[in-house]
Design brief:
heterodimer; A: alpha/beta; 6-stranded mixed beta sheet; 3-stranded antiparallel beta sheet; B: about 300 residues; about 30% helix
Amino acid sequence: MADNPFFEVRRLTKNLAGRPVVRNVSFCLNRGQTLALVGLSGAGKSTLARCLALWDPPDSGEVLLDGTLPRPAGGQIQLIPQQPAASLNPRFTVAQAIEEPLQIHHRGTPATRRREALRWMAIVGLPAAAAHARTGSLSGGEGQRVALARALVLEPKLLILDESLSGLDLSVRAQIAALLLDLRRERALTCILISHDLALAAQLADEIAVMDEGAIVEQAAAGELLASPRHIRSRELVAAARELSLFNASPSTVPAGIAHAPAVEVAHALLRAAPALLPTRTPPEDDLHTSPPARAPWAKFLALRLLHGLILLGVISFLSFVLSQMAGGDFYSEMRNDPRVSPATIAGLRREAGLDRPLLMRYGQWIHSSLGGDFGYSLAYRSPVAPLLGERVQATLLLTGTATLLAWLIALPLGIWSASHRGTWRGGAARSLTAIWLAVPDLLLALTLLALAAQTGWFPVGGNHLALPAAVLVLGLAPALVRHVSASLGEAMDSPFALSARAQGIPRRRRLYRHLLPAAMNPLVSLFGFSVGTLLSASLLVEVVTGWPGLGPLFVEAIMARDFAIVLAVVMLSAIFLLAGNLLADLLLYRLDPRIRTVDR
Amino acid sequence: MPPAPLLRVCQLGVHLLGEGGKILPVLLDVSFQIQPGEILGLLGESGCGKTTLALALLGLLPPGRFRIDGSVQLRGRELLSLPESRLEPIRGAQISLVFQDPLAALNPVLRVQTQLQEAAGQSGIAAAELCAMVDLPSSPRILKAYAHQLSGGERQRVVLALALARRPALVVADEPFTALDAPRVVELARLFMRLAEKLGTAFLVVSHSPGVLAGIASRVLVMYGGRLVEWGPADAVLAKPLDPYTVALLASVGLAAIAGEPPGLAARARGCPFEPRCPDRLEPCAARMPAECMPEERHYVRCFKYGG
């Protein structure tokens, strides 16, 4: 034959995660024809669909439309994905959703685009009044119609429907199917229909291709495939369709007065006539070919996260160094105002300290000294930075460690209590109090406590006493934690598995602590890492205000004196803290959440 | 005398307490019975009130948001008036629920084995035995797995095993077939039949697909717009439907569309909910709901076409 087929797929193969999902698929389709791709879930149908629509590139093989290679995103092949209503942006109006493809392809003016959108709305059976409804407010059937109009507005040569009709109510499915049959008849629409429902495929398609484990194992005219399936998978599907066919249950009593399309009658007659093809019970799914779930190797996970952290630290160190140098002035700038010091002396001092060298060289020196354990040289103290930090780091760690621990110890029970008293007046009161508490600035809190302590003498003030600074930090951190604990536990309580546990009769307390709390841990662990990471920077201010001898006072002093080596060291320390906190969270999540730990099979 | 029913639902009504004091009917005047060991089918489309009915039977509707009246008796004991603390020991042990979406209904961070043990509670039926009950291999791959590691068919069986864990007399299954391929649907449907026969468990199977109910249910209830419109032996209801809605619904299996949309909650208060779409509508249809009548042996319908 001289003519090319309208749509042709040649030896298409696609691997996902190193596993072949589509294997060597070839088929042809004539203009105006509908091909149904049927198969069990996991057979590779959706992956094939994405390749056919040029959403994903195949690993090998090609797709030809009218004898040429179609351009990706050219609009000639349109795919309606599974759950089309969910793929619409809920904030768009119906008209906007339908117009958008025209806009993306620079077709027409806003006025002509709106006209086109309204025309297609009429074709798919949406009332013009619906044009300004948000797509988020539509019913399942209406969402289907919008998705269809959106796909068809570019007048594609080929339309691919991926399970678009499954999961719909029968009456809605019938409406959409009738619409598709109309479009085929009136516009010679060429279609690929993907479904696991053979009975539906038989009603809508000219040809049926059965997919199994990524390959097309049988392809035939719809009636022929239903009457005499050859491949074992086709037989299984036909037998199941036959068993679930209502007309099969009592063949003589098809409800009177039903207008069947002739093709439908043929399909049903064939379904009825099909011999029993399966043994009475298929064995449970084979347990041998599915190996235990693969584990993402622990060491690799850790190494990868550490590597990320190191790269990030490098970038942060460079940026903070450059920024500190751009701040203008240096440790000796103040001396210029002193008439007793000559400019030549200052220049000499700066040369001695290496401040006149090029930026990159100074950065290199600083990194070298940091890696050597000195963290640069403080001009104010005339000493390497590391020994200056030593005790102060310990003091800060003591403060932040105590504060984090206490904040979590307070927040967990409060959050759990607040979540389990939702909807009661006590729960409401607790929520409001938390909100108010959350709005109080930390500085105000610190000053209030300080004043209180000074007035009453309840707390020892200043110097080496932990109580006041720790109290300020805990009071600053805890309300946010209470909120998060309450919110994520509340979310778990609203989930279907919480209702399911209730339906199983699992008692309330047990449900809360054994079922819901573990499921709610995930965001809390991330938050824990974050709270550890940010406490260092949060505590600097509190230390200054309360006089705690940690890094805070040193940091402020160094900024004032433009003693950049100390400033940089503290900045880097807080960066390390943040990264370490996140790493801790990642490791805990890896440990706690099976969904992160195991790779999907 | 027929044997005492396991579950007797009498004039159950559920109203949603909407904003601004609005009271919206979700279920109206629902009455039916289930015998021990019976598989009863409930056929209806999205939004008709099927899931609300399932939750109402177990007392799982949030009390502040719904007004519930009528009567639900399990073995002669009224459930609607029981406080939560008295319902808790009944759930799971006497009546349990299989949810629509098995992936969402399983706890994502607990292993299958742990969930089976938790569901079995004090009754102490071993996880392996529960697996065997639902044709799951009790291999480490299944028992040690988390929900996301199982196939759709396996998940649905685990959810069923959870519902059966304390050998309840009645299992309500809400759309258990939707997420499955046709061959898996057939397997699961056959499993329901074997369980009903072997353990004497009664099932209320809620579905929007008449084909599967025709295969397993002894009787079928058809629900539309929050009301039962037709009920009777499965063969009679699904093969020779009487109510115009059932006739139209079954025709849509052959892709004959019903014009119009199902009614919203606000349109449910008076009259027959199918009236606006009904090809056979009569004068009184919009004004009031007809009473039930029995044009054929044990086959009931609420439609003026047949009296009422």
